[in-house]
Amino acid sequence: MDREVSLLRIASKQYSVFHRRQAIANGFSAKAIQRRLDSGVWLALHRSVYIAAGTTVGWEARVFASLLSRDGHAVASFLSARAIWGFADEAPTLHLTVPERRSARSRGVVVHRAASLDGVSYRGFRVTNPMRTLLDLAQILSDEELELDLDEAIRRRIVDVVRFVSYLDQRSAAGVATLRELVALRDPGRPIASELETLFLRAVREARLPLPVKQHPVRTRRGVAYIDFAYPHHKLAIELDGWDAHGTVAAFAADRARQNELEELGWHFRRFVWRHVRNDPADVAFSVARGLGLRPVRWC
Q1: Helices (H), 105-142
Q2: Under a CB-based contact definition with an 8 Å cutoff, are residues 182 and 146 in contact?
Q3: N or C: which terminus of the chain has fewer CB atoms within 10 Å of its end residue's CB?
Q4: CATH 3.40.960: does it fit domain 206-291?
Q5: Which pLDDT does position 246 carry in this prediction?
Q6: What ranges do the domains of the chain cover?
Q7: Model's pTM, two decimal places?
Q8: At 166, is the secondary structure helix, strand, or coil?
C-alpha cells in the first residue's frame, strides 16, 4: 500500500491529524517529513503533530492534536471535554489535564495539573469522565450553564444521579457545593426532559417560589394524563410548549383535548414557550405566583 494512502487512513480516524512516529512507521524518513513541512504539504499543529495542507482544522482536530502531542500523558478536560461530551457545540478554548509532574506548557492550550486524570475513551478522544467534566466546569461556567449541562448529562444517561451524589461526597474542589445543591434537586427517576424545563425550574427557584411536582399523573376519563409541572394542592398545571414535542397538528390537538379533560376536573393552566421562559423569567415566575394566589412580598 502507498505510504501516503496508509498514513491518510490513520489520520482519518484521528480527525485528520497524525504524529511524526506514525509517519515514520508508515515509511517516511526524517528527511521526507522535513521536505513536506518545508514545502507546505504538511502543516505542524504541535511539535511532531501534523495535518495535510488544505484540511479544515476544526476544534476536534485541534483537541486531538494537542492530545497526540502529549504522547498519552493527558486527557481533554474543561471546555474541550464539554464539547466532546456534547454539552456544547464546540470548544472555544482548548483545555488539557496532565499529571502533576508533567509540564504545563503547550502552545494554544490551557493546561491543568491533577493527581488523578479520571480519563475515559469517547469518540476517539481520551477525555475526563462526565462526572469529572461537570466538576471541572463548575469552576468556570455560570450557574445556569452548569445546570443546563448537568441536565443534559442526566437526560442522556451518561451521568447517574445516585452515583454522582456519592462522587461529589468524596470531593472538595471548587464548585462541589454548587453541584451538590443542583443534584439534590434532581429526581433519579424523572430526569429534566429539555433545556426549556431546566430554565423554567431556575425561574421558579430564583423567585423563591414553592417547587412544583414534575410529571404529575392525573386520572381522566380517557386515562392517565401527565402534567409537565404541577401544584396539586392548588390544581395549577404548568405546561411548557417546546416546538419539538408540540409543533405538529396532532400534538396541538392532543394537548387541547387533554387540557379540556383536566379543566373539567378543576385544574387551571399556565402555558409557557421557549421565548417567554428564556427572555422574561421574572414574568414567568409572577404568572406562576398569581396562579398560586401569592403576592410578591416574600410570596405571602
Answers
A1: 130-137
A2: yes
A3: C
A4: yes
A5: 57
A6: 1-55, 133-192, 206-291
A7: 0.87
A8: helix
